[in-house]
Structure formats: C-alpha cells, structure tokens
Amino acid sequence: MMLAIGSLTALGVSLGAVLGAASRYLAVEVDPLESDLLDLLPGSQCGQCGFVGCGQAAAALAKGEAPVTLCGPGGKAVAEKLARRLGIHADLSKHQDQEPQVAIINEDLCIGCLRCFQECTTDAIVGAPKQLHTVITEHCHGCGKCTKTCPTGAVTMCPVPTTLNTWHWHKPVPKKGRHRATIGRRAVG
Amino acid sequence: MQDMVLLIVSAALVNNVVLARFLGLCSFMGVTTKVETAVGMGMATTFVITVSSMGDWAIETFLLEPHELGYLRTVTFILVIAAAVQFTEMLVRKVSPTMFRLLGIYLPLITTNCAVLGIALLLVEGKLSFIQSVVFAFASSLGYSLVMVLFAGLRQRLALAEVPTLIAGPPIGFITAGLLALAFMGFSGISTH
Amino acid sequence: MRLFSVRGGVHLDYRKDRTRNLGIVPLPMPALLYLPLTQHVGAAAEPVVVAGQVVRKGEVLATAQGAVSAPVHAPTSGRIKEITGHVSPHPSGLSQSTIVLESDGADAWGALPAGIEDPFAATGQEIARRVAEAGVVGLGGAAFPAAVKLNLRAGHTVDTLLINGAECEPYLTCDDRVMREYAGEVVDGARIMAHALGAARIVIAVEKNKPEAIKAIANAARPFATMAVAEVPVRYPMGSAHHLVKVITGRETPAHGRTASVGVLVHNVGTARAIHHAVRFGRPLISRVVTVSGGALKSGHNIEVPLGTLVRELIDFCGGMVAHADQVISGGPMMGHPLPSLEAPVVKGTCGILALTADETNVQPTGPCIRCGSCVEACPSGLVPLQLATLIQHEDIDGAAKLGVEDCISCGSCSYICPSHIPLMHYFDYANGRLRVLDRKRKHQEKLKTLAEARRQRLERQAAARAAAKAKSARPAAPPTASAQAQTQTQAQAQSKPVGNSAAAASVTGAPVTGLPVTTATETGAGP
Asked: C-contacting residues of B 64-83, CB under 8 Å?
C-alpha cells in the first residue's frame, strides 16, 4: 500500500521536476508574429484598411482584431499569406481582387494647392505651390487618399490599362458536350 | 539478428498499429490532410512512443512486477506518457513554431492516443527484454509514421479529385483507409512469430 | 554524327505536302504597310519619322530603345501616312502603336550602311553592331534581338553554334524552302555568327523529313570543316532550342537557364540568312518567308512577304477562302496563337499564317481525366501535366509552381495526346501568366515600401530642420533638448500630416517641393 502511494508520488514529483527544468531550458522567446505579419503587408502605408499604417494593421492582425482580408491593395495573395502565417483557415473563394487603379490629375482643374501632395504616402505626386501637379504612375498604388482631399475634383482614379506586356491568358473553360471517342481519327490541334 | 529483423517487420508492417490493430485512428484521420503535418505528427509520436516505452518498461520491470502492483499499470504508464508529451510539446515549440501551429490540438492529444498506451501495454504483455522493447516501440512508431504519410498523400490527391458530394471529405477518407488496411493485410503472408 | 535521346514528344500528322514543294514566291508590294513598333522581345522602338515624311526602302523608321530592343526599317519606298494604334497580331487583340507606310510603287532603295568586306576579320562587337542596326531578330518565332544573343560571348564561353532547321510544326515549310533555295546564304550567315561568337563548331540540324534541304545544306557546307549537318529524328518538339541542344550535344540546359550556360547558342536558319544580308550588304530585315496554308484556303504558298503586309492580303494572294475558317492562326498549329483579326500585319516573328477548317482544328468537348498518363509520357520537359492541371483547376497556383509549371515550354504535346481533350497547355499558360503578374506585383510592392520609407525620412528631416530653425531664431542659447524633443515628437507623427502647411512652405524657400530628397537652405543650417 505505502509502496504504491510512495512510488506513484515519487514518480509524479520526479517527472514534474524534469518538466520544470525542461520548460526553463526550452523556453521560447517572444513569437515574432507581428514583425512577420508586417513583412507580408505591402508597406505602402495607404490606410485603406482603416488603420493608420501597416504597422498598426499588423498589430491588430496579431491580436486577432482584424480580418485577413483587410488589405485591399494586397488582394487575395496577401490575404492568403496572412492566413497561412496566422495558422487560420480563411475562405477566400469569394474574394474578388480589387481592380488595380492609379490616380490621374486633370490639368485643367488643378489649382496647385499641394493638398494631394501632402496625402500621398509614396510621394507619387510631384508639384510645387501654385504650379501644376502630376502623378508618377509607377509609384502610385491606388489608395485614393488624394482624391478625397482635392478641392476641385481634379484627381480621379482610373483603372490601370492592360498593355501587351501585362496581358496574360485567361483560365480555360473546358468545352462541354457529349464526348466522342476519336481514337484513330486524330487531327492536329 | 534475424529475430530483430522479424520483430521490426512484424511491428511495423504485419501488425501495423493503425491498419492492423486499429489504434490511434483519431490522429490518423485528423492530421492527414497535408503531408507536412503528417510527417511532423509521425516524428513527434515516434519520439513519445520510444521514450515513454523505455520509461514504461523500466517501471514495469523494477516497480510493478516485483511488487505485484499490476493494478497501477495504467496510471503510471499514462503518467509517463503525459510527461513525455509535455516535453515533446515544448521541444516542438522551440524547434519549429510552424509545426507547432500546424499540429495544433493534436500534439497534446498524443497523450490520449491509444496507439501510445497500446504499444506500451503490448511490450509489457509480450515480456520483451529492454533492447527488444525499444526496437519494438521504435518499429511500431515507424509503421505508424509510414501509414500516416501514405494516407496523407492519398488524401491530398483525393481533395483535388472529383469525388461525388455524397461521400466527399471524411467518408471517402474512411473508405480509402479501409482499402489501405486491406492492402496491408497482404503483409500477413510474412510468417513471423 | 552521334545523337542523344530526348524524352517525350509526340509524332504528328505533318501535312506539309501542301506547300513543301512550292518555291518561294515574292508578294506584289501592297499599297499600305503597317509596321508595329514592337515586333520583338524587349522595349518598343521609338519612331524617328513623322506623318507625311517621304522615306526610301531600308530607311530607319524607328530606333531601338535600350539593350534589348530592335529598330524598324521601311520595307519599301513611300510616304508615312500616319503613326497610329492598329490591331497587333497578338492573341489579346490589343492595338499597338503602328507606323503606316504608303508605298509609292518605285521600291527604291535608300542609302545603306556599307557591308563588311571581310566579316572574318571583323570583331564580334562590330558584327553584333551591324546585326543590331539591321534589326535582325530571331525568325523562328521567338523574335529575340539577334545581336543580344551574339553578345552573350561576353558572359559565356560558346563552343557550338546550332542552326535550327528542324521546323517541327505541321504545315510550316518556310525554313525548308529557305534551306533548299538559299543554302549558301544560310551557311555564310552561320559562319559569320560562329566567328562573332568564337564558336569552334557549327552544326545545322534538320529533321529527317526534309531530305532535299539536307542535301542542299550539306552541299553548301562541304567546303567548311567546322560545319556539320545533323539529321535529327522527326518528333515534335524537336525544334525546341533546349531539346535540340540535348539531342546534338547531350547537354541539358538547367531549368530557367539559357543554352549559352552550357556553351551552345541556337539560331534559326532564317536568322542566319538575315545576318548574311545584314553583315555582307548592310541590308536591314524588311521581309521574311511565310508559309500560308490550311484547308480553308484555295491554295497554299511559301511567300517572301514584306513586313507590314496585312494577313488579309496574304489570304487574297492565295486565292481567298473556299471554306469557313474555324481559326486563322499565326505560327504553327501547336504553338501558334489565333489572330484577333485579318487586319493584323505580318511582323518579324510570323512564320506562318494558317486558315484551318473545323475538321482540321477538331475541337472536341472535354471529358474527365482518366489518369492514363499519356501526357506524362508526352511532356518533353519531364513535367506531370495531369497533376499540374488539377492543381490549377483548384487555383493552387503556388502548388503548380512547386511542381515546375514554369518549366513548361508551351509546346502543346500534352493537350494533343490527351484522350479526354483536356486543354492542359492552356491551364499552364494561365498559371504562368498569373505567376508573372504576382511576381510583378511583388516587385512593385517592394518598390512602394522603399518609397514610403523615403517619404517618412523626408518628413522627419524637414521637421527636424524646421525645429532647428525655430530654436535658432526663437532662443539662440536654447538647450539642445528642445530641438531633440521636437525631433522625437515629429518622428512619432511622421506617418500623419506634417504640422502646419505654411511652416513647410515657408521653410522651403521657393524650391519646387517634390517627392525626392530636398536639399534646402534650412537643411544645410546646422543645429544650435
């Protein structure tokens, strides 16, 4: 009887001690979740997600306070990566990628007030006070903040045109119909 | 030497833990959606089974048998297994946080995996020597890992195939597991004692 | 010559008999020629002519832009009608900037740069320069600027020049005829290229189904010891550069790599002929041989076509359509692409125009995949098309990339052999297109990150300069902590609007405020 109790107690205590020592030795430092999430986000600080910058969006994601689909410009690709890093399953089958857009300035309406320039998070707008402003298209990431501050409505968003370089094949839609056997009656194509 | 080989083949293939003895089916169905997770689970379980079997053999030989404390067997074995799993959890978390996240709840569930307790009880029942016990435990867990990886590969392919909605998901998984078990029955043709 | 084996490939019904014995005929000069500015891989050429300008044959109409580009020359004399958008011979149907030339009927040559007297005494760079000036691009269909390939000598040791006369696509016979009728020019061009590259060995590869071409080339090449003719087996896609290199030399080009990295360079027979003209006579690339064929046409021909001829005019030259054309294809039936319109022009990369009937295209409904594995046997790149297609159907593009979809050469052997008529190659084209888009997006986002960071630093710098100026003007003996405090404050606010537009404007003394780092008078002023 005593042996049973004693041995079981001893076993429990010794195993507990081993685990205690192991937990100290194998302690894990702070999980770099937030910095990993920040790396995955576009980093253009556009504010479309509702947070001031990508850093705050990453913090909210780490706490689980924001959905992985928060980043519009990042689209489905970024949402998938965020979900993978967070280890959660996100149903993105219905997710539509935002049509990429760029800002253009209508030269006739621009009064050179510099307000859009202050807003642009990637300095894609160039211009001087009282002088014409224009957008460097390659630097514009389509957040739309400039359109909101323009007093004359000179800045508008328009979709990025497809060029020969950016065009790509669409997903093939298999032809439906009764399948005929054609073994022995081959043709090219 | 030949005994060892026979022991390994018997433990891993002929009397496969999952497909012949039908132990450990919870993790078998739960972790095999992706091959990476199955590999990680296999490795973790191998470690737990081997370590806890050694501990269990020691307890059986030096404590339970000489003092006829057989009624304490289940309790003490589970104690050792639980400690081993806790240790494995800490180890996995340290070595690979990704794997830790991927395995999720199934890592602590190794404690309740009947395969682990089953193997320990089997080697005690078989009255094997220490070396034999270790080999038996290691080979059984290798068989477990093998089947996990095979099944995970099959399930990954099934996920992409055009399965009728009626049996898509777990049902077709079980049917495939059954077919896999039938296939492994072929090993029983190898005569081992 | 000892040949090595290659994996995969399919045996096709070649249907070359329609045109293979017809000599090359010249096309009567059309009234209008449409010359797109991008007829090659690389940056578009910039026009140097304006509407209304009179030009002579061979005159430069647009100059190359950058290292990978090619100029455009006038195929005939005449007047520039306009430079406008016109449908391009591209499956997208998009229009591109096109120079429209109105022929004056005189076909008068302008002044050409003098040819090199003895190309074998000239340097490789000199030859490459002439080739670039002449606007020669790969005439096998890839349209890669030939001069850039000749300059690869700088980075790689090329010991073998392979001249590709395989022409493995059905219907096409243009290379066959060029070899038969202009064997001497092809051989000369090949020798010039080998000299430019420093290649010791030249091999001209021709498929066994072209016995007359083999004989002609062998005759022309006989006097030259470094040249050999290789008869390669008839198997599609034997004309693929990587596979031809493997067959002739046994060397396998690494994935995502160039053949130059294994010491071999491949050029088409037509390109060799064009280089002969460019280097010996200074003649630019202004026409090419095109095979026009297909069941829907009255007759097929091999035509020497001036660049910029509309496809419609070629079809009319062949007697027009006698049956409904299910598809009009530019190139061959396996790797060519459908033309968006008959008003598209012939460009440097157009090898063939095929008007195929529904019987010939034989588009069948798609059945389920039966896992027969024929596609795996057929794939020359060693991929597993059935697995790749399943992944792509489920939109797992990353999974497909891991299985090597980027190594797909789009030959179409898998789609051809599939008994269920699954459009396998089209799935891979789609996946590769998506991967390119994602890659572009990723690069763009990295650039945006650096821009956002630069902006943050600019704001920091300006705020610090402002604070320093304020401290200096307000209290000359102010402790350093005040400006340091202001600095840390503005650092925290860097992400939002800077404090006070007027302050910013005032500190920037009239200099234009741009996104680039601003060096202003206030910045040069040091702290307190």
From this structure: none
Nearest residue on chain A to B74, alpha-carbon basis: A8
Angstrom distance (rounded) from CA C146 to CA C75: 19
Least confident of A22-26, A76-80, B53-57: A76-80
Cβ-Cβ contacts under 8 Å, C395 against chain B: none
What distance in Å separates residue A128's CA from the closest CA in chain B? Answer: 50
Q: How far is A119 from chain C (nearest CA, A)?
A: 7
Structure tokens at B89: 């959890």
Residues C277 and C384 in one domain: no
CA distance C353 to chain A (A): 15
Considering CB atoms only, which of A43, A169, A180 is closest to C364? A180
CB C198 within 8 A of CB C153: yes
Q: Which CATH number fits domain A101-159: 3.40.50.300, 3.40.50.970, 3.40.640.10, 3.30.70.20?
A: 3.30.70.20
Distance from the Cα of A132 to chain C's closest Cα (Å) equals 11
The token duo for A90 is: 């996100």
Q: Which of C141-145, C450-454, C493-497 has the highest mean pLDDT?
A: C141-145
Q: Which of residues 5-34 of C touch A (CB under 8 A)?
A: 12-13, 15
Q: How high is the ipTM of this complex?
A: 0.76
Contacts of B160 in chain C (CB under 8 A): 390-391, 393-394, 396
- Please name the amino acid found at residue A18: V
- pLDDT, one tens digit per residue, over C182-221 is 999 999 999 999 999 999 999 999 999 999 999 999 999 9
For chain A, list the strands marked E by DSSP.
101-105, 125-126, 134-135, 155-159
* Containing structural domain, residue B61: 2-188
- Of the candidates A11, A26, A31, which has its C-beta nearest B90's C-beta? A26
pLDDT at site C484: 45
**B-chain residue closest to C392, CA distance:** B160
Examine residue B94 and state whether it is found in any structural domain, yes or no: yes
Residues of C in contact with B161 (CB under 8 A): 390
Residue A96 identity (one-letter amino acid): Q
Q: Which of C378, C329, C182 is nearest to C270 (CA)?
A: C182
Q: May I ask the CATH class of domain A33-86?
A: mainly alpha
For CATH 1.10.15.40, list the domain ranges present in chain A. 33-86
- Per the CB < 8 A criterion, the answer to whether C147 and C309 are in contact is no
Which of B63, B86, B87 lies at the smallest CB-CB distance from A7?
Answer: B63
Whether the predicted pLDDT of C502 surpasses 70: no
pTM: 0.81
CATH code for position C176? 3.40.50.11540
* C486 pLDDT more than 80: no
Question: Does the pLDDT value for residue C516 go beyond 70?
Answer: no
Answer whether A19 sits within 8 Å of B97, measured CB to CB: no
Domain that holds residue C466: 371-473
pLDDT of residue B192: 60
Q: Indicate the residue among C260, C283, C306 that finishes a domain.
A: C283
Q: What is the pLDDT of residue A180?
A: 59
C49 vs A87: which has the higher pLDDT: C49
Write down the pLDDT at residue B27. Answer: 87
3-state secondary structure C249-289: HCCCCCCCCCHHHHCEEEEEHHHHHHHHHHHHHCCCCCEEE
